[in-house]
Amino acid sequence: MNMNITFKELRNIKHALPTGSISKIANYLNLEEQTVRNYFGAKKTPGKPPKWHLQAGPEGGIVNINDTTILEMAKRIIVQTEESPQTLS
Question: What does the mean pLDDT of the chain come to?
Fold first, then answer.
């Protein structure tokens, strides 16, 4: 699934994740943690580069995401945390 989101929105989602979420997403998808961090805008190795393209624009630019799997998981974790702050499932 393809989608567009501002870079600022993408970073806000990353910052809204509870502690340990990056690891949880990485483990579930069998990815390196740094690959998940890179998806949210980090530019470090050894993780793989994100599967999105950044176009210049307001709010840090527009990110065209080719694979929304990580983003969808992150959003689910945020919703679960808001519904039940004591548990992360």
Answer: 86
Give the pLDDT confidence score for residue 86 in this predicted structure: 60
- Return d(Cα 65, Cα 60) in angstroms, integer: 15
Residues recorded for the chain: 89
- In the chain, DSSP assigns E strands to 3-6, 52-55, 62-65
pLDDT at site 85? 61
Helix, strand, or coil (residue 50): coil
What pTM value is reported for the model? 0.80
Q: Is 61 left (phi over 0), alpha (psi -120 to 50) or beta?
A: left
Report CA torsion sign: 17, 21, 23, 25: negative
Token digits of residue 1: 């699934």
User: What are the domain boundaries of the chain?
Assistant: 3-83
